[in-house]
Amino acid sequence: MWEKIKAEKNLENDENFCSTFANSFFNLIWEEIKNSEQLYGKNNSEILKRYYFNLIKDEQYFRYIRYFYVERLLPLLKNINKNLKILDAGCGLGTEAILCGILGSEVTGIDISKERLDLAMLRKKFFEKQYNKEIKVSFSYENILKHFNKYDIIWVNEAISHITPFNSFMKMCYNNLDKQGKLIISDANKLNPYIYLQSKKDQIRSGGVYKKLLKEDLERDEHISYAVERIFSIPKIISMITPRFEIIEVKKVRYLPYLIYKFNSNTFLVLEKKILRKIPIFNLFSSAYVIVSRKRN
């Protein structure tokens, strides 16, 4: 696989390669999780397993999750060329930051959880061994709203629901992107009833939609505001993006429950790809979305 990656001069629009690579990468994550205690120690293993709790249920459920993970990654991967500078905003354990680094980009991952970033650094070393190459990824423990550098792509995966104020984040993205730079956002869709109910449960458990996190060891920031699963509908997020960004692609992801996949995965794929994607009402209520946009100049 790595010989193919090294031979690629331009990954853009090569969807078959992107899909093959993403599936292979996700399979490696599964192996990493299964061996995580040996790789990272007990505490870090527990962090990784909590973060990816859906992957350790059983092999069939893993394949179900992998399908949707790859679907969400494709809009990002199709926009990656070698030597791009990428910001992973709210990078968590650094998974997509590492993935983009494997493909030859120079990546900065930012998060406000030092615990996750410490594990992300260990994971980077693991993937460097697996792919036998240096991965140009750095991780920074800081307030994303105070960050400044220049990037070709800003990737925001399941983080837009937590970053607040939203307008300040959009301003940061605009200022940090080079001319024709792209902002790619992937998150949950508020119009999906199941997703909406889950977001409300998370808010109740956390004591409200917003909270302030004490971060005494972050320079110049005593507190950072944090939104709890403040998810948006697809039309709403588009309306909030368009003042500064031009929409290039809107992809809707995940329409069918696991029970259908478990009954017959081939039937599931035919229904999902050939039928439901072509029905507008199902697109509107998809459980997740990926929006690719370009900076307005």
Overall number of structural domains: 1
Taken from the alpha-carbon principal axes, the silhouette is globular
- Which percent bin holds the helix content? 40-55%
Report Rg: 19 Å
Q: What's the overall average pLDDT, rounded?
A: 91
Strand tally, please? 9
Q: Output the CATH homologous superfamily.
A: Vaccinia Virus protein VP39
Spatially, the strands of the biggest sheet line up as 3-2-1-4-5-9-8
**CATH level-two architecture:** 3-Layer(aba) Sandwich
Please identify the structural class as seen in this structure: alpha/beta
What are the secondary-structure elements, in order, as H or E? HHHHHEHEHEEHEHEEHEHHHE
Measured distance between first and last alpha carbons: 38 Å
- The CATH class, by name, is Alpha Beta
Low-confidence blocks of residues: none
Largest sheet: 7 strands, mixed
Write the layout of secondary structure elements.
Blueprint: H1 2-7, H2 15-34, H3 36-40, H4 42-51, H5 59-77, E1 85-89, H6 95-102, E2 106-111, H7 114-131, E3 137-141, E4 151-157, H8 166-176, E5 177-188, H9 193-206, E6 210-214, E7 223-227, H10 234-241, E8 245-253, H11 258-263, H12 265-275, H13 280-284, E9 288-295
Helix pairs in contact: 2-5
Quick take:
With 297 residues, the chain is an alpha/beta fold.
